[in-house]
Fold this protein.
Amino acid sequence: MKKHLLPCLVAVFALMSIFLGCSDNDSNPPLIEGDYNDPAYIQAQGLAEIYVDSLAAFALDGFSYMEFDGTGPMKVASDSVDIRYNDSSSWWTVYAHYDTTDLNMTFLDSVRFEEGSEYRQWPDSLTTTGIGYHALASFDLAADSATFAGDFSQNMAIDGIQSDLVAFTGGSSADIEIQTNTVDYWQSYDGSILNVTFNRSDLEVLEDPHPISGGLDVTMLVVATTDQGSSSVSWHAIVTFYIDRYHVRLESGGNYWEWEGPYGG
């Protein structure tokens, strides 16, 4: 299903391994502004762009269920698909599995359509007011120099569908392991989606919409293990969305970095 999801996740976690050497585990206030020539900061800029892009992909995936007809939407070719409706809970479940020589992916979406305080089996462009959207994904990927394995979950409430502004709230989490010939990385991610708002018209017509307000609050723990032992780093990122840009504050150890970027940059 989500054609943009897996590349975003792999890129995010691969970039996060670079942060392992940027600071130690002491985090006593006040924080000191970090070196903006630090390679870790430069990688963080790329990381922020990936977060922005991945959030837009998730928003589109959830909002695209307004066109759900019991057979889709399917975003990638799947080896097997199973779609079911629960009359008691009013939740749809959409299962898809994709398998190649190097990649194994499983997706499970759960979606429920709201009309005020009631639930409906089908979406209606004139009466649906909200969508409950849960996404689970697991994958195994074998590359030339590394292997990736992980699980990801996303829970969102999508509100304001009958208005000009559509708001997304909820949370996401993931656990992933990256193995190379010399080091194993284990990374745990937990994030909150804070009333991230899109123009409804952008979700309907644009392939790459961007938020106009709201934010993300993200924490991650990265642990690296080699023959010499283990080391770890934790970090905290706050992303704030504006109409024409986003602002990021990254904190790790005793340092912080702040920057702004344009959408699509």
Summary: Residues 118 and 128 are 10 Å apart (CA to CA). Helices lie at 5-16, 39-63, 200-205.
